[in-house]
Structure formats: structure tokens, C-alpha cells
Write the C-alpha cells for this entry.
Amino acid sequence: MKTDQTKKRKNKKWIAGIAAAAVLTAAIAGGAYAYTKSQTVGSVNGDRITKSELYDTMANVYGASAVDSLVTMKVIEKEADERNIKVNDSEINKEVDAYIESYGGEDALKSALEASSLTLDDLKEDIAVNIKIEKLMQEDIEITEDEVKAYYEENKANYDQSEQVEVSHILVEDEDKAKELLKKIKDGEDFAELAKENSTDTASAENGGELGYISEGEMVEEFEKAAFALEVDEVSDVVKSEYGYHIIKATGHKEAKESTYEESKEDAKEAALSEKISSEYSTWLEDLKKDYKIKNKFE
């Protein structure tokens, strides 16, 4: 079922994994010495595996890449300080909110982070580095009008607006329950309040069942067919899908509209710049590192 999880944020691939590497490096740097070197961390038939052996193995396997990630962060920090580039909390929180939306809620995001042995604070640190990289590279990388136009033409379909309907829904597991709720709506009870109290789609229930605008192909067929047949402010009959029983309310409608370059220029420029930053990041970083004296004893 489509919830806010379908509204994906931009994927900044060029810095992915830095936070994870930092966590790993911290484990390498401190793991063997947080306790005595001889402390047992495992055994085989009584033959001990010590903390020191664990450290040596982690350092040999992951040391070079983990330290390189920390070197990268240090270089970015120093370069940002040199150019007086700052990142404020509002910028970081805006990105965190986008992650939360893309994962369908804060709990879902935290679960995904925990699965990678990361925390929300790790994510915020990663985001801060991302933003600094963007700001640094925006000073160093030019994007021409021709590049923006070319990007727009190649991705024009992404800027065209398909027909869309704005919907809210209530999802329940039982058909009789759905019919009971539908009757209450027809008798004048508030749709949003009933969604908050009864919908099993928890991601949308807290917002009164709101799903926002949807386009064709985003929803399961039964839901989509019913939604696009509704007039604004009209409520559907009970609709069955593989997820359960829905009651759908249309709250807005947008006709299909072909985009123009002038209307889409700023969005296309931002996307084209983001793509160029991503593709040129590795080369840019290696050139930047040449300005610093760097040592990695694992290499």
C-alpha cells in the first residue's frame, strides 16, 4: 500500500557509508583497549580468542578503508572551516525530516538505522558532512544553461504532471467494520477523526488518513480505480484490496499538464547540479586531498 514511503528523497550516493565507517573505526581504535588486551571475547573448545586478536583482525580487514573515511571527513571539515562554510541545525533537521517521510515515520527510520548499527545522531553527522560537501562543490563546479536544458530534455517526463487525485483513506481488516464506518461517514461523522481512531494504516492514520496526491500506477489497481472515479469531496463505497478494506475520500484533483522548460528550470538546475556533484565527487575529493598532508598507516 502506498504511504509516504513512496515519496523518496534524493539519494546522495557519494558519501554513503561514512557514518558506518566512522562507527567501525571507533570500534577498531577503541575496541581492544576499552578493556584489557587479554580479555576473552570468545573461545573454541576452551581455546581463548582475546580482545587483542579481535582488534588485530578488524584492523587488518577494515583498517585502511575505515581510516580513509575518517581522513575524508577531516579534510572536508578543514576545507569547510577554511572557506567559512557552516551547516546549521535547521538544514540538518530538514534532511532528517525528508528521511523520516521517505521511510514512513521516525520509528521506521530508527529501525533501519539500528539494522546497520547506526543511530539518529550518526545520520545527522552524515547529513552535516553531505551538506558541507554540497556547499564546497557548488563553489568549485559550474553548471551551464546548456547542461540544464539537456538535463531537462532527457528527463522531461519527470516534470510533466500526470492526472492526480488527492485522497485520504481508512483501512480496516474487517468488511463489516468498514461498512459500519462508511455509515458513520454518511451520517455526518468526521472522516479524519474516524481515520485517526480506526485505520490500520498507521502511517496515514495520524494525519487523518491523508495520502496526498497520487498518480496512476502508484496504488494497487482496486484502490486506484475507485480513487480516480471520485469527484472532489466524494467518498467511495467499501473497496477491497490485498491490504484489507478501504474507504476513500477525494479531497483534490489536478489535470494532466505538460511541463515547460521555463516552469521547470530551477528544479532541473538543482537536479542537474546534484547529478554532476555525484558523478564528479571522487575526482573532486582526490584533487582536494592533494592540498593536505595525509598519512594512513594501514596503507
Q: What stands out?
A: The radius of gyration is 26 Å. The chain has two domains: 4-147+268-289, 161-254.
